[in-house]
Amino acid sequence: MSIEKPFQFLDVPRESPVKIEVPIRLLDFKEIYQDYEADHAASQAARCLDCGNPYCEWKCPVHNQIPNWLKLIEQGRLFEAAELSHMTNSLPEICGRICPHDRLCEGDCTLNDGYGAVTIGSIEKYITDEAFKAGWRPDLSDVVPTGKRVAIIGAGPAGLACADILVRNGVGARVFDRYDQIGGLLTYGIPPFKLEKQVVMKRRQVLEEMGVEFVLNTEIGRDRSFSELLEGYDAVFIGIGTYRSIRGDFPGEQLPGVNEALPYLVENVKAVMADRPPDTSMAGQRVVVLGGGDTAQDCNRTAIRQAAESVTCVYRRDELNMPGSRREVHHAREEGVEFIFNRQPMEIIGSDKVEAVRVAETRLGEPDASGRQTPEIVPGSESIIPADQVLIAFGFQPDPPDWLAEHEIELHPNQRIRVNDNGGPAFQTSHPKVFAGGDIVRGADLVVTAVFEGREAAKGILDYLDE
Ligand code: FAD
Ligand code: SF4
Fold first, then answer.
1. CA 59, CA 67: separation in Å to the nearest integer?
2. What confidence score (pLDDT) does residue 5 get?
3. Packing angle of the helix pair 66-74, 78-88 (nearest 10 deg)
4. Residue 274 pLDDT more than 80?
5. Does a structural domain hold residue 2?
6. Which residue intervals of 150-293 are DSSP H helices?
7. Residue 132 CA, ligand 2 centroid: distance in Å
8. Is 95 in the pocket of ligand 2 (CB under 6 A)?
């Protein structure tokens, strides 16, 4: 709560940083929000009621101390806010940008009912962006080296968060990744209009300054064996993500013009990074995107920026039941994407390439095991949506490498790695020396949950190394 004005939220409305106008933002792939100025961040932070029971903190998967760092920003104490923010989150500038705040911290802000939630995500981003610019760095001056070393497989959010906690506790962290850049899906997945790639590069620089080592272009199981890591390090963390695309299994999926979401998005990111045209462009095409999650929104908004003639997003449930961030759906709509809800794709039609998608109307039936209502097809309700290109964005499943089974690392029936089964340290697998976290453990989810699991697994590793 503001010290000067306890009910600042009555006078100061919720204001996000300035958003670039649609016609301008469609010209490139840059982030669409500008930065807060210090006084703007302070006045927005001062809207926090300090309600005494910070639901926002509970809802945040890493349990950020939100009201406390909001107060520091209100008082202009940027470096202290950065220090506090890093006590609970290893990638705060990234989560501040791409968390689905509307269904996490901001969704549970007391002011969300009627006054507009505090702009928690934007202020979290502001804190670390500005602190880095002003020269702040995590302070590791008190850290005493233990002489222990941990190998981390995967430089995605889970692996990076694990490395962050380990080096802060004097344990050497060497991170292996098959790609040429760190970040996992932060770099090769999430489009630059949500997260510019220099943000990830800055974080790499900071982690390297902290002592984290990266060994890139190195796939474990191909370029180096898993056994080598098991023998050469005191523990191993696995954060390899989930990369098997879920297919629709309807006729016509093999037709030219049907694209999987992730390769399409990754090729576009690479083209943007290299400042060249993408191999697959949607320019001048009628694009139909199948799916309703964040990946579908990223496909929609990428295709629009590639100057598609039209982009139609087809989802089998209703808008309320979309799994992704509402904010991203709003942005997609602003940018010209058309949404068709309650439609189940039945077939992709075409003789030698895609010509249309045949869909059937759905209504929502009984909740399934996960509690979500199952879409049921309305008989006789089929229709045709013309299309030149189709993007399939149905999500991802784990694709565990063979070396897991070879080392008796147990999996769930749905191929996720099993952890926490033996009453041992947090996130330990069935192999005592091996820990795991992120999407490969919980299934495709969020950056912030991968960060949480990477941090908790690192604490588990520290307990194991202490035994
Ligand atoms: P990943 O990020 O997948 O990283 C795994 C890393 O392991 C990769 O770099 C991979 O190269 C490496 N690897 C795999 N196998 C090996 C091996 N054998 N040897 C060496 N390296 C290996 N979440 C949000 O919170 N907000 C969003 O807006 C959002 N948008 C998304 C958009 C898209 C298109 C996608 C696909 C996902 C999105 N997500 C979003 C989800 C989020 O990106 C993931 O939940 C998160 O990245 C998972 O982190 P991770 O570290 O578990 O795995
Ligand atoms: Fe909100 Fe995500 Fe930041 Fe937590 S990490 S405060 S959920 S934006």
1. 13
2. 63
3. 170
4. yes
5. no
6. 157-168, 197-210, 226-232, 261-274
7. 19
8. yes
- Total domains in the chain come to 3
Is 180 in the same domain as 316?
no
**For a substitution probing ligand 2, which of 56, 88, 118, 120 has the most ligand atoms within 8 Å of its CB?**
120
Which are the contacts of 174, defined by CB distance < 8 A and separation ≥ 6? 149, 150, 151, 152, 212, 213, 214, 215, 233
446 close to ligand 2 (CB < 6 Angstrom): no
Measured between alpha carbons, how far is 363 from 21 in angstroms, rounded to an integer?
36
Together in a domain, 251 and 390? yes
**Number of residues written out for the chain:** 467
Q: Which amino acid is at 311?
A: V
Q: For residues 155 and 234, state if they share a domain.
A: yes
- Give the per-residue pLDDT at 348: 98
Distance from the CA of 11 to the center of ligand 1, in angstroms? 41
- Decide if pLDDT at 374 tops 70: yes
CA of 99 to the centre of ligand 2 (A): 6
Q: For residue 449, what is the domain's CATH number?
A: 3.50.50.60
Same domain, 384 and 405: no
Residue 2 has pLDDT above 60, yes or no: no
Instruction: Indicate whether 284 and 182 sit together in one domain.
Output: no
Is this prediction's pTM over 0.85? Answer: yes
φ and ψ at residue 285, rounded to 5 degrees: -100, 155
Of 373, 395, 417, which residue constitutes the final position of a domain?
A: 395
The H or E element spanning position 465 is helix 447-466
Judge if 125 and 186 occupy the same domain: no
> Does a structural domain hold residue 339?
yes
Q: Is residue 410 part of a domain?
A: yes
Give domain status of residue 421, yes or no. Answer: yes
| Structure tokens, 200 | 């990830």
Q: Print the domain residue range for 36.
A: 8-133
Question: Using a 6 Å cutoff on CB, does residue 453 contact ligand 1?
Answer: no
Comparing CA positions, the residue from 311, 157, 141, 295 lying closest to residue 239 is 157
* Cα 185 to middle of ligand 1, angstroms: 4
- The residue from 367, 395, 423 where one domain ends is 395
